[in-house]
Each structure stands twice: as structure tokens, then as C-alpha cells.
């Protein structure tokens, strides 16, 4: 996935945009475009200040980033913003040309969306309830790891390849993976206590079900409705839900199907109230 990302058109074009101003100012291109009498070749003191500030901002942001895709996206956004500021200070026409180039890249090379192999099907509300009811009726322990996502959410897009990797590594009889678009199915989001508003910190949310009952979720919501601040990554999910241990457990003692019963409204409301009562684990970045 990393090699595919680095050699993608999105990565290459955004990398060029990110270093365009320093390269132009430090090469003979500066003399041809701006004239050495007006702007001598080399970065000015103000430009060096901007680049230093850029480095500080990226370093601070990187501490909260959990995967490489999100890291590159953040770096490119701040670098392009810094280039805009430096081109504005240099020449208004240069800024307009740069903005046109950025718009062209934005239209022709959108951010990558994961479309690789996975064992985590995208289900609707009814299918999710059916999966949970099937686990509830199983003889023996049956688990499901479910991601509640919104397609408009960048963190959900960044997590997609990592959740797919986990599903390929651990999915087996008794340990299933699934995803549901909580934005598309608001009743599912309400039933499981997921806030899907634009400024919500609950997407993505990962819930672990054991025999149809929720036993863990990230991020947690405290009694004061505060969402814990965590970096959800492949390693974090693997450790938080003890996936390696669950995988070994179900391989040794696989569950057998039971008589499946339809999920009741009572169980749905109980799950929602359970989600609201969860206490934050006070996990910090």
C-alpha cells in the first residue's frame, strides 16, 4: 500500500506543489521568471521564517497522526498553504498561476480511496443486526469487529486500508469484521450511540461484539458526553481488542451456529443506553 501511495499521481503532483516555491527560488528558474534584479536568487529571511514555522506546525500535527496516508495528506496541505503565502509575498501573478496549478491537481488527482482486498464487508443496518443476532444465537463465543464510518470523513478514509489489513489477518469462523456507513443509516448510528455530525469525534468508531453484545468500543464516551482523544490505528485496534488472542481462542474453540432469532427493539435500545453510559478510559495522545 505504501509503494502504491508513493508512486501514485496524487502523491507525485502534490509533492511537486509542496516544494515548488523553494525550488524556483533556489535555481536559475528564479532569474528567468522574476528577474535577478527584482528578486535575487535564494530564499529571503521572511521565506526562511515561513519554512521554519511550517516545520514546527507539521511536527506538532504529526504527533496526532496515526497512519502514513493521513501524515502525507497533512504535510501536503500545510506545505501548499505555505507556498501560497510565499508566492503572494513574491508576486501576485505567481500566486494566481500557482493556485491554478493546485486546482488542476485537485481535480485530476484526488486523494486515494482504498479499493484493495479485505474481509470486512460493507453492510446496511438490517444486515448488521442479522450478523449480531447470528452471533448471539451461536453455541460458543462468537465475535464481530464493526467499524462505524462516514464516507465524508477523512479519518475514516485514512483508516480504511488498515482496517482491511486487520480483516485479512484475523477474520475467521467466530471472528468477523464488518463496516457500516453510519451517515447513510442514521437509525443504526442512533441505536449504537454514534454521533455523525460534521464536527463529531466519534467517526470512525470501532465496536467489538461478543455473542451479540457490545463488550468494547473506541473511542469511548464519558458521562459528560466527552469523547476520548485517541489515535485509532491498526496497531491500536489490534492491541485494544486483543485480536491475536481472540483469533487463537476461536481457532481452538470455534463456535457452532444456533437457531437465529430476530433482534428485538429492546436489545437495540439497550445497546444505545450502554453506549451512552460508557466511561472514558482517559487515554491521551
Summed up, what is this model?
By secondary structure, the protein is an alpha/beta fold. The protein is built from twelve helices and five strands.
What can you tell me about this protein's structure?
With 285 residues, the chain is α/β, with parallel strands linked by helices. The chain contains 12 helices and 5 strands. Helix 2 runs antiparallel to helix 6 (92-108). The radius of gyration is 24 Å and the shape is elongated. The two termini are 26 Å apart. The model is unreliable at 272-285 (pLDDT under 50).
Task: Give short descriptive properties of this protein.
54% helix; single chain; elongated; 285 residues; 12 helices; 5-stranded mixed β-sheet; alpha/beta
Q: Order of strands in the sheet with the most strands?
A: 1-3-2-4-5
Tell me, briefly, the overall form.
elongated
Strand content of the residues, in percent?
5-15%
Helix content: 40-55%
What string gives the helices and strands in order?
HHHHHHEHEHEHEEHHH
What is the quaternary state of this protein? single chain
Uncertain ranges: 272-285
Briefly note the structural class of the backbone. alpha/beta
How far do the termini sit from each other? 26 Å
Helical element count?
A: 12
Measured on Cα atoms, how large is the radius of gyration?
24 Å
Mean pLDDT: 86
Question: What summary fits the major beta sheet?
Answer: 5 strands, mixed
Amino acid at each position: 500500500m505504501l509503494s502504491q501511495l508513493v508512486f501514485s499521481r496524487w502523491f507525485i503532483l502534490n509533492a511537486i506543489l509542496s516544494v515548488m516555491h523553494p525550488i524556483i527560488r533556489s535555481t536559475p528558474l528564479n532569474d528567468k521568471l522574476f528577474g535577478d534584479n527584482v528578486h535575487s536568487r535564494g530564499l529571503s529571511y521572511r521565506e526562511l521564517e515561513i519554512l521554519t514555522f511550517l516545520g514546527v506546525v507539521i511536527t506538532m500535527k504529526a504527533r496526532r497522526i496515526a497512519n502514513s496516508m493521513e501524515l502525507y495528506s497533512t504535510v501536503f496541505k500545510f506545505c501548499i498553504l505555505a507556498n501560497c503565502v510565499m508566492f503572494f509575498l513574491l508576486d501576485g501573478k505567481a500566486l494566481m498561476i500557482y493556485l491554478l496549478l493546485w486546482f488542476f491537481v485537485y481535480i485530476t488527482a484526488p486523494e486515494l480511496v482504498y479499493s484493495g482486498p479485505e474481509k470486512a464487508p460493507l453492510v446496511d443496518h438490517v444486515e448488521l443486526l442479522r450478523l449480531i443476532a447470528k452471533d448471539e444465537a451461536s453455541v460458543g463465543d462468537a465475535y464481530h469487529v464493526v467499524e462505524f464510518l462516514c464516507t465524508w470523513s477523512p479519518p475514516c478514509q485514512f483508516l480504511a486500508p488498515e482496517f482491511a489489513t486487520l480483516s485479512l489477518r484475523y477474520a475467521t469462523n467466530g471472528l468477523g469484521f464488518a463496516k457500516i456507513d453510519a451517515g447513510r443509516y442514521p437509525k443504526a448510528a442512533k441505536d449504537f450511540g454514534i454521533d455523525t455530525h460534521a464536527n463529531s469525534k466519534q467517526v470512525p468508531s470501532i465496536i467489538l461484539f461478543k455473542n451479540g453484545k457490545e463488550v468494547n468500543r473506541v473511542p469511548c464516551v464519558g458521562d459528560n458526553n466527552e469523547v476520548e482523544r485517541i489515535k485509532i490505528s491498526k496497531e491500536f485496534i489490534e492491541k485494544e481488542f486483543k485480536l491475536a488472542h481472540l483469533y487463537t481462542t476461536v481457532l481452538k474453540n470455534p463456535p457452532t451456529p444456533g437457531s437465529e432469532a430476530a433482534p428485538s427493539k429492546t436489545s437495540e435500545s439497550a445497546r444505545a443506553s450502554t453506549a451512552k453510559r460508557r466511561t472514558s478510559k482517559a487515554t491521551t495522545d
